[in-house]
Amino acid sequence: MQNLYTPDFNLDATLNSGQIFRYYEKGNGYVISHGNHIFYTEQKGNNIHWEGTPTKEWLSNFFALNKNLKEMKKEWEHDKNLMEAIDKNWGLRVLRQEPWECTIAFICSSQSNIPKIKKNMNLIAQHFGTPKILSNIKGYEFPKIKSINNEELLKKCSTGFRAKWIVNTSNNINPKIYEEAKTTTYERAKTMLKQLHGIGDKVADCILLFALDFPEAFPVDVWVERVMKQNYKHLRTKKLTEIATFARKHYGTHAGWAQQYLFHNARTKR
DNA sequence: ATCCAGGAATTTT
DNA sequence: AAAATTCATGGA
Fold this sequence. Notes:
- By secondary structure, the protein is α+β, with helices and mostly antiparallel strands.
- It has helices spanning 11-15, 56-62, 69-75, 80-88, 99-108, 114-128, 151-156, 163-172, 177-182, 186-194, 201-211, 222-231, 240-251, 255-268, and strands at 2-5, 23-26, 29-34, 37-44, 47-52, 130-134, 137-141.
- The longest helix has 15 residues, at 114-128.
- The structure holds a DNA duplex (13 and 12 nucleotides).
């Protein structure tokens, strides 16, 4: 296995915080399928070991190792509740995903839950994607853009009423949308994504944050809504978009990372 | 404005 | 054990 130095990194918290869905536990680590890549990885202290298709460069980018968590934490020191969430899950990182897979995952996420999204994504990869087997590591490449276009088959993936959104988006998406979105402003990129079927404010923010390098995007789902309203009483009467706007100002350029800590902490505590 | 779509997970009774 | 509720988008 190859080795990668990963300071301030928590593989368990990162994978289990509802960002990616095609992975399973194996041995002391995980088998992860994402985009075209399949690999096994496990963490030992400040290093991860891995084997599979990715290069070291791809993995470093995927795990967003260039981001400085200690600096982010400093910017958020005024927020006591966030400090608690961070300390409990130190090393949780926002991954840099392959945008198409991320798009489909979060269209599936609407009115759903993490175990079910995992089921949807694994079935979609099995039905529409290509199997990839590296000795004892088994996974699927995620189907290419435009190829997820059979509504009947999508319904067999338990996607329910989202099946037609996926077909519609798959057929109508401009493959260059991601490159274009990356080079424009947060607001404009969000507007572009929301043209697609099944993508509203929350799903758009997830794609911006998890795949398009907009760390300020602050997706507000019920968990985050609850925790924000609890921590900031003046938000109790506000709408979701107002909460998101407040949070982007309040937490700054990496508000989305703060969101990821708040979300994971809210879901795992008790 | 309000209701519903499909469905596993979660919470309440 | 069984019943009610959860959950984000778009269309009626």
